[in-house]
């Protein structure tokens, strides 16, 4: 790469001091000016035409790339957000995956700690000379130089997300139940041997710096209140203790998941334990729980407030959509007696966010400030999602089995089936194993056991997950208990060559490492009687097709969570069709919609893991009736 010209740009006309001072005022004594900031490193690397690996490993490209983008688009403040979830785990030896047009990520399929032995073998990393720790110091020094002495916030990966990367999310959830002592040891190691020494070096070099701790996986939905209270909050507070106690700037304000709970206030209260000086509510949750209730809570508790605008509206909203959301957030956010303590935040501008949209966003903010408010008084949040997919939800003609009763059954068998069902809902692996063995001894057919206890329990779990009564950990634990019953049945099912309901190959597409949603789909499909083969993450079309051929798949399922990886979903569908494969391809993941699925020629879309099972059953039934017609 030749030397980009923006490295020599003079930024003296960019008023760092004024903008940062406004943000500080809004978050302390108050200001009539509404400041805003944005996570934008991926938008910046695309705008600056710098490959991802160079951008995230070279402090000068990183800092000046941010400044160049912010100055060109008229951003208020520069938000130097490096790939926060990776630095500390990479310092420990975590394996990185690099991408051209987005932030790198830890390879979550090759984890650092599987056993106590692995943990004991980890050496505390040098707080400056390992991984890219030195580069973070360089970024902050360079910013200080160009900005006339300002300290940018020190970003860090909060304990829960870091430990998930060390252990693997699903495994961590199971370990929390099976071996909580070991899990505490891992958290202690991360906080005491890695994070606190690393932060202390940064605070020594930048004594005035604030912090922003990021914790995507430590959010509600992924974890329950119990896990939050035992494993997340205490270790964030321990980090604070080890980095200066009351005077430590350590705080974590990036949790999402407010809309997973029926009572967001309980969640706000927990947020304040780890970030007591303001309340931050961001999309996709803010649009669901509503700006007004969030504003009211902050007012009642005398708290400065930050509203976060979702990535999807910035990426694909029309001018009108963008104006409506931004003006509502600014109007409601800045209303009432505490309204002068408010700031706006854009959750993320990605490499795919069209520059025209970014210009519209800046214009919308400036118009609001000038008093040009075409949507004054309009409040749409609190009722539905900005992009409401419910109209395209799968309406399966095959009903999920009656979860509570199960199929009609002989009265002698029913009580035992109910006990297994309850055992799964109590996450009791040993009991489930014993009872399934017991059922086999009583010569109950494996298919009957499967349908009336294992599959039935997972149907219930899926439904309760869909309605928000259960969170991801509960679903994982139930799936784990279901699997221990399935293991007892497996030898018999295999010996009898019992046919599964269908064979599904699942993968997260190329460029994407998000796998929690895909893994939930896999669990519910298994729970629904399907045989599932998981190709993993960042999977190229050839790899997916090879696996589908190897296992003679009935269905291929593709997952994507990033707008940057969605084109690969399209490429994979095209490659499969062009190769002449006839198995249906189904797609899903938060940014995917029925409309997108139709556009890329996929054979089905489902919004959730529960709907994925309904969809898979429908496709299998359609295949059977097509066979009958042709026979
Ligand atoms: C957890 C998370 C992470 C974790 C991922 C851990 C893991 N092992 O998966 C970590 C921290 C590693 C991470 C990294 C990154 N992330 Co991230 N992440 C999230 C977060 C918080 C939640 C995603 C999630 O798991 N949701 C829960 C699951 C259950 O939902 P789901 O996947 O949609 O799955 C359900 C359905 O969609 C459906 N489904 C899913 N797959 C399939 C497949 C089929 C076939 C079917 C039928 C159905 C189906 O069923 C599932 C269950 O009901 C979101 C923000 C948010 N609030 O959503 C950001 C988010 C997805 N990440 C984002 C980004 C940008 C990144 C990073 C680039 C770093 C960054 N700048 O933040 C890296 C990219 C890494 C990479 N190359 O992949 C952006 C994506 C923006 C966009 N649309 O492009 C989001 C939206 C956050 C944001 N900034 O706005 N991330």
What global shape is seen?
Answer: globular
Strand order, largest beta sheet:
10-9-11-12-13
**Rg calc:** 26 Å
- Low-confidence runs of at least 5 consecutive residues: 389-405
Mean pLDDT: 90
Write the layout of secondary structure elements.
Blueprint: H1 16-27, E1 36-38, H2 41-47, H3 52-55, H4 59-73, H5 87-91, E2 96-97, E3 105-106, H6 116-121, H7 133-147, E4 154-157, H8 159-167, H9 169-178, H10 180-205, E5 211-214, H11 225-242, H12 264-274, E6 279-282, H13 285-289, H14 291-300, E7 305-309, H15 311-316, H16 319-333, E8 342-346, H17 355-370, H18 414-425, H19 429-441, H20 446-466, H21 472-495, E9 503-508, H22 516-527, E10 531-534, H23 541-551, E11 555-559, H24 566-578, E12 585-588, H25 594-600, E13 604-605, H26 609-630
Parallel strand pairs: 1-8, 4-5, 6-7, 7-8, 9-10, 9-11, 11-12, 12-13
Antiparallel strand pairs: 2-3
The structure holds cobalamin.
Residues 85, 99, 102-103, 105, 108, 161, 169, 216-217, 256, 284, 311, 347-348, 350, 512-518, 520-521, 557-559, 561-564, 586-591, 606, 608-609, 612 line the site of cobalamin.
């Amino acid at each position: 790469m030749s030397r980009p010209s923006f490295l020599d740009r003079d930024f003296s006309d960019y008023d760092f001091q004024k903008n940062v001072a406004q943000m500080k005022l809004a978050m302390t004594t108050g200001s009539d000016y509404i400041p805003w900031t944005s996570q934008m490193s991926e938008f910046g690397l695309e705008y600056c035409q710098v490959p991802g690996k160079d951008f995230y490993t070279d402090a000068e490209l990183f800092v000046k790339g941010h400044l160049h983008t912010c100055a060109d688009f008229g951003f208020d403040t520069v938000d130097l957000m490096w790939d926060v979830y990776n630095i500390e785990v990479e310092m420990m030896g975590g394996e990185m995956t690099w991408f051209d047009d987005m932030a790198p990520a830890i390879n979550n399929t090759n984890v650092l700690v599987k056993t106590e032995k692995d943990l004991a073998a980890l050496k505390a990393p040098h707080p400056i000379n390992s991984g890219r720790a030195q580069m973070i110091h360089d970024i902050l020094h360079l910013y200080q130089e160009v900005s006339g002495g300002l300290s940018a916030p020190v970003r860090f990966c909060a304990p829960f997300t870091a430990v998930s990367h060390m252990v693997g999310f699903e495994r961590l959830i199971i370990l929390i139940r099976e071996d909580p002592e070991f899990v505490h040891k891992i958290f202690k190691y991360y906080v005491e041997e890695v994070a606190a020494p690393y932060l202390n070096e940064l605070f020594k070099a930048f004594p005035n710096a604030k912090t922003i701790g990021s914790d995507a996986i430590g959010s509600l939905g992924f974890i329950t209140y119990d896990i939050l209270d035992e494993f997340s909050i205490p270790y964030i507070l321990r980090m604070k203790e080890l980095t200066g106690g009351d005077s430590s700037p350590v705080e974590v304000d990036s949790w999402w998941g407010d809309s997973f709970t029926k009572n967001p206030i309980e969640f706000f209260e927990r947020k304040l334990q780890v970030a007591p000086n303001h309340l931050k509510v961001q999309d996709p949750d803010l649009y669901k729980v509503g700006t007004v209730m969030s504003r009211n809570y902050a007012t009642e508790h005398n708290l400065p407030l930050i509203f976060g605008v979702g990535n999807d509206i910035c990426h694909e909203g029309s001018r009108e959509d963008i104006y409506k959301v931004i003006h509502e957030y600014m109007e409601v956010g800045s209303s009432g007696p505490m309204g002068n303590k408010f700031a706006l935040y854009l959750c993320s501008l990605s490499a795919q966010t069209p520059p025209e949209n970014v210009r519209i966003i800046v214009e919308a903010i400036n118009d609001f400030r000038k008093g040009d408010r075409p949507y004054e008084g309009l409040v749409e949040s609190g009722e539905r999602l900005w992009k409401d997919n419910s109209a395209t939800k799968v309406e399966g003609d095959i009903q999920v089995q009656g979860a509570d009763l199960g199929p009609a059954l002989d009265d002698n068998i029913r009580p035992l089936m109910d006990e297994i069902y309850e055992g799964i809902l109590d996450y009791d692996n040993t009991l489930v194993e014993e009872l399934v063995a017991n059922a086999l001894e009583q010569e109950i057919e494996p298919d009957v056991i499967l349908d009336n206890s294992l599959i039935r329990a997972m149907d219930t779990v899926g439904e309760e997950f869909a309605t928000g009564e259960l969170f991801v950990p509960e679903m994982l634990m139930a799936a784990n208990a279901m699997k221990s019953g399935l293991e007892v049945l497996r030898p018999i099912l295999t010996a009898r060559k019992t046919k599964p309901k269908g064979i599904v190959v699942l993968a997260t597409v190329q460029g994407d490492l998000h796998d929690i949603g895909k893994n939930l789909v896999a669990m519910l499909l298994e729970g629904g009687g399907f045989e599932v083969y998981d190709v993993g993450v960042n999977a190229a079309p050839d790899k997916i097709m090879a696996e589908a051929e190897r296992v003679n798949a009935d269905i291929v399922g593709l997952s994507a969570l990033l707008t940057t990886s969605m084109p690969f979903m399209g490429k994979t569908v095209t490659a499969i069709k062009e190769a002449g494969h006839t198995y249906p391809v189904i797609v899903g993941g938060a940014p995917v919609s029925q409309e997108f699925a139709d556009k890329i020629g996929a054979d089905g879309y489902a919004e959730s893991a529960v709907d994925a099972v309904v969809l898979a059953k429908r496709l299998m039934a359609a295949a059977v009736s097509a066979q009958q017609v042709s026979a």
